[in-house]
Write a structure and sequence with these properties.
Elements (H helix, E strand, L loop, with lengths): L5 H6 L7 E4 L3 E5 L7 E7 L14 H17 L7 E4 L15 E5 L9
Antiparallel strand pairs: 1-2, 2-3, 3-5, 4-5
């Protein structure tokens, strides 16, 4: 059996995190190295290494993650002013943890291009 990722350990409450939302399909928590005043990660409980490896059977879960991100943005008070959702895929895409996750960034003006 493969070793659990950092995010699987957070889902299983083996590693502490500041959780802002959780349900049967996902967990959202504050990033420990925030890149904006609001920086929250939304992760599925199901271990999907990256969005490029999600299957057709993950379609509802992926939609749930996006709807959860929007709900968290509303609860954080950034929905009206705007926010960014980022999904990194692979090393060159900036992926650091091999577990699909969405970065919710907001609370300030975000520049484009992001880098």
């Amino acid at each position: 059996m493969a070793e659990k990722t950092l995010f699987e350990k957070i889902c299983d409450k083996e590693i502490p995190a500041t959780i802002v939302h959780e349900d049967e399909r996902c967990v959202a928590f504050r990033d420990i190295s925030p890149q904006a005043p609001v920086h929250i990660l939304i992760i599925p409980r199901k271990a999907i290494p990256r969005v490029g490896l999600a299957g057709e059977d993950d379609e509802k879960l992926l939609g749930h993650l996006l709807l959860t991100a929007a709900a968290v943005a509303r609860s954080e008070g950034i929905a009206e002013t705007g926010y960014r959702l980022v999904i990194n895929n692979g090393r060159d895409g900036g992926e650091a943890v091999p577990h699909l996750h969405i970065h919710l960034l907001g609370g300030r003006h975000l520049q484009w291009p992001p880098g």
